[in-house]
């Protein structure tokens, strides 16, 4: 493994152990077993490296989740919704540090325009990915973005509840029942 990959691995570990704001360049260099100058050489800045590490971690989570949920997508309808959310909720325990870091970053977005821009682009890609995971045809991008935004809002809310109180967070069955109840209230007549 070269210095570039070692830095990504070290930055990911630091993100999970210390969070975004408390991680120093020295922490990353030490975790990666490389010189401090390697960060500037390969990434330009500590922030660019942390952003790359976070992006890689999010993509890895998405890839693992998509693999886990491949069978859920074949079910269709309510069963697909419930099975997909069961898979998402199960993944939270494995990736708790990833979600904690993302919530931490939300507080920094207003003070860091370049981070806000990269996070906004990642959010857009996540919406399309979520729409696909939940069975929306990505060919109609406008519809996929709207539906993906709905699932993203639901996901962020569920993750927030889960981070605060894992035992009190809604289950996949709870989510399905809530969507059915809301949907029934929105039906005409």
Provide the descriptors you would attach to this structure in a database record:
189 residues, Arc Repressor Mutant, subunit A, mainly alpha, elongated, 2 domains
Short recap of the structure:
The chain is mostly helical and 189 residues long.
Write down the domain tally.
2
* Strand coverage percent: under 5%
Order of H and E elements: HHHHHHHHH
Instruction: List unreliable stretches of 5+ residues.
Output: none
- Sheet with most strands: none
* pLDDT averaged residue by residue: 88
| Euclidean distance between termini CA atoms | 63 Å
Radius of gyration: 19 Å
Helix content: over 70%
The structural class is mainly alpha
Count of helices? 9
Per DSSP E runs of 2 or more residues, the count of β-strands stands at 0
Shape descriptor reads: elongated
Protein name: TetR family transcriptional regulator
Domain HTH tetR-type: 1-61
GO molecular function: DNA-binding transcription factor activity; transcription cis-regulatory region binding
DNA-binding region: 24-43
Describe the protein's architecture and organization.
Residues 1-61 form the HTH tetR-type domain. Keywords: DNA-binding. Residues 24-43 bind DNA. It comes from Actinocatenispora thailandica. There is one protein chain. By secondary structure, the protein is an all-alpha fold. The protein has 2 domains: 1-50, Homeodomain-like (Arc Repressor Mutant, subunit A); 69-186, no CATH class. The chain is built from 9 helices and no strands. It has helices at 3-18, 25-32, 37-43, 46-68, 77-94, 96-108, 113-133, 141-164, 172-186. Helix 4 (46-68) runs parallel beside helix 7 (113-133).
């Amino acid at each position: 493994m070269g210095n570039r990959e070692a830095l990504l691995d070290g930055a990911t570990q630091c993100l999970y152990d210390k969070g975004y704001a408390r991680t120093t360049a020295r922490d990353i260099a030490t975790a990666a077993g490389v010189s401090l100058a390697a960060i500037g050489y390969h990434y330009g800045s500590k922030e660019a490296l942390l952003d790359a590490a976070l992006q890689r971690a999010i993509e890895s989570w998405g890839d693992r989740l998509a693999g886990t949920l491949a069978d859920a997508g074949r079910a269709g309808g309510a069963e697909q919704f419930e099975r997909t959310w069961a898979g998402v909720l199960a993944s939270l325990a494995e990736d708790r540090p990833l979600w904690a870091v993302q919530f931490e970053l939300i507080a920094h977005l207003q003070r860091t325009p370049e981070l806000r821009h990269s996070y906004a682009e990642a959010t857009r890609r996540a919406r399309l990915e979520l729409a696909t995971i939940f069975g929306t045809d990505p060919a109609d991008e406008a519809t996929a973005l709207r539906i993906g935004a709905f699932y993203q809002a639901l996901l962020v809310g569920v993750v927030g509840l889960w981070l605060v109180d894992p035992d009190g967070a809604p289950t996949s069955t709870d989510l399905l029942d809530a969507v059915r109840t809301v949907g029934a209230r929105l039906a005409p007549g």
